[in-house]
Write a structure and sequence with these properties.
By secondary structure, the protein is α/β, with parallel strands linked by helices. The protein has two domains: about 325 residues, no CATH class; about 50 residues. Helix content is about 25%, strand content about 20%. The strands form five sheets. The protein has a nine-stranded mixed sheet with strand order 4-3-2-11-15-16-1-17-18, with helices on both faces. The protein has a three-stranded antiparallel sheet with strand order 7-10-9. A two-stranded antiparallel ribbon has the order 5-6. Helix 9 runs antiparallel to helix 10. The longest helix has 21 residues.
């Protein structure tokens, strides 16, 4: 049985304090001389979760209280992995648009404080993520004030820097994706899952795809006994991973929680299958549903452009882009295919990638070799003050929940999360497959208990009252949520 807690209050909000300091100088707080905020619901909520779970119960209320000492020891390296997916939300600009998109820095700030307590001056903290290729990281840093976070710790003698783990980033110019090499502090290490991968003996080998990348490179990493992911040293050198996810609906996976958040330790997207070329009707893919010819033509032109971009043939890429726009316009007018790029309930690819990466995170050693025994621990927090619904993960609409979810197992976390979201768990293929993956979860998920400050969220997972009623993305509407879809299964 794992420790699980959902703290919820309809009136909770993120603090406006520049450094997200607590409002109370708690006995264990390390920086009282740096001042306090007028209000910080987040700090209080996370602290209350630790108390309610009985973490280091003998020392609660004293300067020696160390709630994360159960998970973290002095001298260890700790990776704090937020969800820093993108620097803008075109679906909802402004404060709420970014708050429902990325992990709020007030969550990061509080967790760093308690990790520092657990390390007792020995060890290292790495705060890092690999956003999507189009994220302009300096813009994101400015919008959510990551410089302020680093500044606070620097002034207090701590070396806390938020790192971008991407090997490359991209900017779009005239419809063309231009690749920019990033100067990485932590390089990526190839981890080969081989027969332990869910892509081993894949009947559609050679057909896996990820949008905006040359599929030849992707399939080179997923052929036969070669089932590779490029995992950052920031993860592989860690003894403990603190997973700070931002729960949202997700076009390809249905939802994103603790398990999906670990995709961000992979430093190159060209190792991450997201869908499989072809239609579900043909039995050869999950890119879309029907055998409409226009859908196949549209997909092929997009792939040609990705290859041209990879080879830096940008003039040819522009020609393909304008041709694609014409085909796309005709397709929307004449073909009946609703789904694209695996962004729908029939996606049978992305869940494999998610589980594979999570196995690499837990079982790969410092050199990237897969081991039989776990190499590191993981604990999970979900920033559910403002979540994202509808077209997540990149274009979510704000959804107020007012909660913070904790579990010391990512599989249990995602089961509790989807129950809270109101999603039909039997329709989420990721949950069904990961529950049976003994490397990530051993137990009976139906017997797991959730605790909460609200009675309606207490009890076994299947007894939790799911009253938040998230809206799924278009490709999942009417399948996993309580809303109606125009498409008939």
């Amino acid at each position: 049985m794992y420790k699980n807690y959902f703290w919820q209050n309809d009136n909770i909000e993120y603090s406006n304090d520049r450094y997200w300091r607590p409002a109370i100088a708690y006995p264990e707080y390390r920086y009282p001389e740096s001042g306090l905020s007028e209000n910080n619901d987040i700090y209080d909520a996370i602290r209350n979760i630790f108390i309610e779970l009985g973490l280091d119960s003998a020392n609660i209320g004293t300067a020696g209280w160390n709630p994360l000492g159960e998970y973290i020891s002095p001298g260890q390296t700790v990776l704090i992995k937020p969800n820093l997916v993108k620097d803008s939300n075109e679906a909802c600009e402004g404060k709420r648009g970014i708050e429902c998109l990325v992990t709020h820095p007030s969550i990061i700030r509080c967790i760093v404080d308690y990790v520092l307590i657990a390390l007792k001056g020995e060890g290292r903290i790495i705060v890092a993520d690999a956003p999507v290729q189009g994220c302009i990281f300096p813009n994101l840093r400015e919008k959510i004030r990551l410089d302020d976070l680093e500044h606070f710790y620097r002034d207090n003698g701590e070396k806390i820097v938020v790192e971008d783990l991407r090997t490359v980033s991209m900017i779009k110019k005239d419809g063309v994706n231009v690749t920019i090499q990033n100067d990485l502090k932590y390089k990526g290490v190839e981890v080969n899952l081989a027969e332990d991968s869910f892509f081993f003996n894949n009947k559609n080998e050679g057909r896996v795809r990820i949008t905006n990348y040359d599929y030849h490179e992707l399939n080179r990493h997923h052929t036969g006994n070669v089932q590779q992911y490029l995992i950052s040293e920031a993860c592989l050198m860690a003894d403990v991973v603190v997973n700070l996810c931002k729960p949202k609906s997700h076009r390809k996976a249905g939802f994103t929680g603790a398990l999906k958040n670990m995709i961000g330790v992979n430093t190159s997207k060209e190792y991450l299958p997201h869908h499989t070329k072809g239609s579900k009707e043909s039995g050869r893919g999950d890119e879309y549903y029907t055998n409409e010819k226009m859908a196949a033509i549209r997909s092929t032109f997009a792939e040609w452009q990705d290859i041209a971009n990879k080879k830096e043939k940008y003039t040819f890429s522009k020609m393909l882009y304008f041709t694609y726009k014409v085909i796309n316009k005709l397709g929307r007018k004449y073909d009946k295919e609703k789904y694209r790029e695996g962004s729908w309930w029939g996606n049978d690819t992305i869940w494999r990638t998610i589980i594979d990466v999570n196995k690499a995170v837990i079982y790969a050693d410092n050199n990237g070799k897969m081991c039989k025994e776990p190499q590191r621990r993981m604990i999970c927090f979900g920033d559910m003050i403002w979540c994202g619904e509808k077209e997540g993960p990149l274009l979510p609409s704000p959804k107020k929940v007012g909660g913070i979810l904790f579990s010391d197992n990512a599989v249990v976390f995602d089961h509790i999360l989807t129950k809270l979201m109101g999603f039909k768990q039997d329709k989420l293929v990721l949950l069904g497959n990961v529950s049976a993956e003994e490397k990530l979860y051993s137990g009976n998920i139906k017997e797991e208990i959730a605790n909460s400050n609200q009675e309606r969220f207490c009890g076994r997972i299947d007894e939790i009252e799911s009253n938040f009623a998230f809206r799924a993305s278009d490709g999942w509407t009417g399948v996993i949520d309580c809303y109606q879809s125009e498409y008939k299964q």
